[in-house]
Each structure stands twice: as structure tokens, then as C-alpha cells.
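The protein record passed on for reference:
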Amino acid sequence: MPVSTRRQRQHEEHLAYRLHGSCYLNITYHCTLRCAFCPKFNGSWEVQNIDLLLTREPQADEVLAAIGDPGDDREIVFCGLGEPTLNLPVLLDVARALKAQGKRIRLNTDGLANLVHGRDVSPELAEVVDAVSISMNTQDEVLYERHCRPKQAGAFQAMQDFARQAGEQGMAVTLTAIDGLEGVDIGACEQIASELGVGFRRRVLDVVG
């Protein structure tokens, strides 16, 4: 067996991991952004000493099996170090199954799902997702382009549009920005959230998980 194949099979995948009383789901390694501050672009796929590197896209039944019994979980959070909405069918299937068990569902996202999929996916998400946390990260497009390095044009505005649409669909929306990231004005970020009619949370640079 080739060494690369052995290494891939020996690597333990963490499709579900538990922190702070919640169950976090790691359903993709792909991302819409290439954030300069993201651990994976600085040589690490670990969050709280949990290796989140994936080498493939898992299926819904695999994710549900990895969760096991969610009875004690305060909420289920789609997170990981990839962008969960890039594996949208699996996200929706898993969330639907867990929602049927009465679980609260939260999505941590870059807010670019509509841009990537070319349509408004917020109605589909609203059927199974209670809360959305969106990484706005900065207060303007110039800083966003520099720090987040989006793969598609118009990402900063698309993220804000998604925040507004998600709120209109009834999901509890929170924008987050990173205190300590060069040039970021937390007050200005909070003002944008206020203007969009959504919540705001300050994050701290290099504190993950």
C-alpha cells in the first residue's frame, strides 16, 4: 500500500466534536475564503487540540453516526475549519434529522452561500437552522479583501446581504468581527450589524473554539 494511502487511512477524522456543552460538526474542508489569520493557512488544522483535517466530503449518515446520542448537547453547531454551506445537501439533511429530535441548530458561516450557489438559500436554511453566526471580520471591503482573501468578487456586500436575508427568514443572526486584526474598528463593525438589524459579537484574534 502506498505511504500516502496508509497515512490517509490512519488519519482519524473528527466529523463531530464537543466543546462548551455543544456538539460541533465538521462537514467539509473546502472554504470560500482564504483568511490570512485562519489556523489552516498557518500550518494547523487543530481547534482546542482536535484535528479537524478532512480529506473528503462526508455523507449525512456518517455525520449522524459520528454524533451518536445528542441528548446532552445544548445545541448542534455546523462549524469546523471549512465553510459548512459548501456541503449544503449534507448540512440540510443532518440538520433536518437533528431538528426532528428537538435540537437547537446553529450555523457558523462566512455568509457567502448565496454568492457561491447563485441563489438565495436562506429559506432552505431557515427550515432547519435556528441561529446563524456570520464572520464579517472587518468593517469595510478593503480590509475584508486584504484579510479574508475571498475567491469571488463582491463577497463583502454579498455577506451583508445574506445577513439581512437570513434575519428576514426568522433566523437569529449575529455578525462577528475580530478585535486585534490590523485596521479593524470594532465599533464600526457593530454599527453595520445595527444597520442590518442583526446582533453583533466581538471575537479576539487567535482565539479559536
About this structure: The chain is about 35% helix and 20% strand.
